Amino acid sequence: MGCDASILLDTVGSTASEKDARPNLTLLGFDLIDKIKTAVEEVCPGVVSCADILALSARDAVSFPFRRPLWPVFTGRRDGRVSLASEANSTNLPSPFSNFTTLAQLFDSKGLNLDDLVALSGAHTLGRAHCGAFLRRLNFTGNNDIDPTLDLTYAAFLKTQCPTPVNSSTTVEMDPQSSLRFDTSYYSAVARKKGLFQSDAALLADPASAKTVRKFQSARFFFSQFSKSMVKMGAIDVLTGSNGEIRRQCRIVN
Q1: Of 70, 123, 115, whose CA–CA distance to 225 is shortest?
Q2: Which of 107, 111, 190, 252 could cross-link to 195 by cystine, CB 3.0-4.6 Å?
Q3: Is 42 within any annotated ligand binding site?
Q4: Which amino acids does the record list as binding Ca(2+) 1 (predicted)?
């Protein structure tokens, strides 16, 4: 499981692929990647991998409002042939329920440091999450009590968005102030105990991490580090040379 576009593969048979793993159920845009791949294949078939298309698309989607690329994307990746939901459900991806120690160890195992951890968490300023990813914070010990690291006013708001019994399809903005804008409001929210996930609140549990959260409320520091961290993350477990393949369609192996 790395930067090999395994997330794009559809489930085949009874073995679920990564895109059907619980942490990935809110992901969108697969149809758009298919359209890009089709257009690219018409011009230069068998040359550009789905992994590179995904990396470039992520960069360009975030960068578009700024009218300039926010980080360089090095191309030449090849596509993986295996996609397993079990890998996405394991310790390969940070869980929204993770504490700081777990997060730091996971990022370290991927060659990422504390600055990378805090910077990449800032991507939570975009998108939505299912109620199940944070619901336990609203009934922390089973006695209808609130996670003490969560702002009470924000908790009350979340209860209105995810009333009991919870609809499994209900989603909530991860950053209510700017879920469609890439900015630093996530860090302001986390500093005020209004991070949606336990993993967001965990960034305040470590003194160095908490200091970095405060630092990244400045756009200058955040954008600079986010760019560096995305380059590092984009090089994790990359397939090159004769490894993997260049898929003709991103949803299925050749």
Answers
A1: 115
A2: 190
A3: no
A4: 2, 4, 6, 18
